[in-house]
Amino acid sequence: ITEGMIVPPLVDLGVLTPDGRIVKAKYDKFKQINRFLEFLDDLLAKDSRDTVRIIDFGCGKSYLTFVVYYYITEILHKKADIAGLDLKKDVIDHCNQVAEKYGYDGLKFYWGDIKDYVAQQAPDMVITLHACDTATDYALFHAMEWGARYILSVPCCQHELNPQLQPGTLSALTKYGIIRERTAALMTDAIRGCLLEWCGYKTQLLEFVDLENSPKNILIRAVKANIPLPKREHAKKESEALLHQFGASQTLHKLLTKK
Questions:
Q1: Kind of pairing, strands 201-207 and 218-224?
Q2: pTM (2 decimals)?
């Protein structure tokens, strides 16, 4: 999306002015959206299917969801079947009103918890932008259960490992609060990446946006692939070695191994 384009949902949501200029206070949000579209374009522009089915977990006010729908239908000229899920009912009601206003028939929003969500039809892609803490794990777990071809996830607030860390000889990593917090967050996403590989996804952890725009700047991009079994098993062992080293347990690992 370039400045000067009239994207009605972004005007309605206060990101663009009616003549397509970026609202100064929303510039970081606009930049995040465009960066996400770059990753999306890299996947879907090469995809031959006519309809793209997506579930957006933790959609919030749905800046991203609306633009993804616009991108697929108006730029790629494909059909989009997108479901957004969030815990805030008033936000969900508003998003449905906006979708109806713009005639986005393939875009629906639902109130509910990620961990309890049941898909009516398996999606081609699961996306999450800042799903908090273990909500990201449940989103990734569902995506793998459904065999989603693509996963794009920007994790947020990785608190689960922090209080568990017992690093033994690596105590320097937990001695200082800020280093402990960042170590726990990076470990969490490294474990998620390894577990995605174990489940047959070619996985990359990439910079989402510059740190000055958002500290939540790691994006997990996973694509279903034919990965040799030895490589998959090695990835699982890597995740478990890390958990063992620090005496911790992690939600996605527990969900996948039923531990």
A1: antiparallel
A2: 0.92
